[in-house]
């Protein structure tokens, strides 16, 4: 990252605008087309002072609006400050609506942005407030604005953490069959244990049906232990102790599966070396260098 202080607009964009119109910045406001380019850089970029400022303001707006939504769900606060919270909610809804419209206007491909993940999230961040005019209670769906906090990664420039997240997602995808088998085994186990507990304890001790007994087995196996149902007989308590001990092993299995895949992908990353810049850490499926963009050689066969 460069040590230079960010400017209001990037040097490249400024040169582009001046090339098209040398008097663009000396005659007041730039043309509508140039204004669109500037707003696009501010909204979608983080390299300029205005771009970073926009993202910081947006982040705080999201946080404050989320706090207002949460406070409105508390009956005592809603009864005392309901009108104020309602006004705050509509203020941020209008603000985010304007932001969404601006994003559609300045995007190079508005349709692509509208159907992208963040585009759908941006729309869902304002839609529930308008739906609340027709459907009571739908405004609480606005907690989806939490997802918009993902934009904080752009502000803090945590690219290296995003690359680590991509590695974790890749490892999870590679482990999906093993994880599926593990979850299937757990479900089979809780069905058997729940049925056994139903037969041992019976309805007089709270285990009045197999589904309710399976619920107890899940709660016990995951070491949550609500305590709303508890075995009374000696055999039932022995079985409960056995399930609790199994619960600790339950945590280790999926962790081990994913850890093995992570270790394998860490080794795979070191197999790829860029001829131009010498970068060695690339994913096995990478086609281009993550540092300079040079095309990589195909990976060595297993």
What attributes characterize this protein structure?
302 residues; mainly alpha; Helix Hairpins; 2 domains; 64% helix; disordered N terminus
Q: What does it look like?
A:
The structure is a single chain. This protein has twelve helices and no strands. It folds into two domains: about 10-155, Four Helix Bundle (Hemerythrin (Met), subunit A), CATH 1.20.120.350; about 165-270, Orthogonal Bundle (Helix Hairpins). The chain has helices spanning about 10-20, 30-45, 50-70, 75-105, 110-115, 115-125, 125-130, 150-155, 160-175, 175-200, 210-220, 235-270. The chain is an all-alpha fold and about 300 residues long. The chain is flat and about 90 Å long. The model is unreliable at about 1-5 and about 150-160 (pLDDT under 50). Helices cover about 65% and strands about 0% of the residues. The longest helix is centred in the C-terminal third of the chain and has 36 residues, at about 235-270.
Topology of this structure?
Layout: H1 11-20, H2 32-44, H3 49-72, H4 75-106, H5 110-114, H6 117-124, H7 127-131, H8 152-156, H9 159-174, H10 176-201, H11 210-221, H12 234-269
Helix pairs in contact: 2-3, 2-4, 3-4, 9-12, 10-11, 10-12
What's a quick, concise take on this entry?
With 302 residues, the chain is an all-alpha fold. The chain has helices spanning 11-20, 32-44, 49-72, 75-106, 110-114, 117-124, 127-131, 152-156, 159-174, 176-201, 210-221, 234-269. The protein folds into two domains: 11-157, Voltage-gated potassium channels. Chain C (Four Helix Bundle (Hemerythrin (Met), subunit A), Up-down Bundle), CATH 1.20.120.350; 167-269, Orthogonal Bundle (Helix Hairpins).
């Amino acid at each position: 990252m460069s040590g230079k202080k960010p400017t209001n607009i990037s040097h490249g964009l400024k040169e582009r605008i001046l090339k098209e119109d040398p008097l663009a910045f000396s005659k007041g406001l730039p043309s509508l087309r140039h204004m669109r380019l500037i707003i696009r850089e501010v909204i979608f970029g983080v390299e300029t002072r205005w771009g970073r400022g926009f993202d910081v303001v947006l982040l705080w707006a999201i946080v404050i609006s989320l706090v207002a939504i949460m406070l409105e769900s508390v009956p005592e606060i809603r009864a005392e400050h309901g009108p104020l919270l309602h006004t705050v909610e509509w203020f941020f809804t209008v603000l985010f609506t304007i932001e969404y419209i601006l994003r559609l206007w300045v995007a190079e491909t508005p349709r692509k942005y509208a159907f992208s993940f963040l585009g759908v999230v941006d729309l869902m961040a304002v839609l529930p407030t308008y739906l609340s005019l027709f459907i009571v209670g739908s405004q609480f769906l606005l907690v989806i604005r939490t997802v918009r906090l993902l934009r904080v990664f752009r502000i803090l420039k945590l690219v290296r953490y995003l690359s680590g997240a991509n590695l974790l997602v890749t490892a999870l995808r590679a482990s999906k069959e093993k994880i599926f088998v593990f979850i299937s085994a757990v479900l089979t186990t809780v069905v058997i244990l729940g049925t056994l507990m139903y037969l041992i304890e019976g309805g007089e001790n709270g285990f009045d049906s197999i589904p309710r007994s399976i619920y107890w087995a899940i709660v016990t196996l995951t070491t949550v232990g609500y305590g709303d149902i508890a075995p009374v007989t000696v055999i039932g308590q022995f079985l409960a102790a056995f399930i609790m001990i199994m619960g600790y092993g339950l945590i280790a299995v999926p962790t081990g599966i994913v850890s093995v895949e992570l270790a394998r992908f860490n080794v795979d990353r070191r197999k790829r070396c860029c001829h131009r810049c010498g970068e060695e850490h690339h994913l096995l499926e990478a086609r281009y260098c993550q540092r300079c963009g040079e095309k990589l050689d195909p990976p060595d066969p297993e």
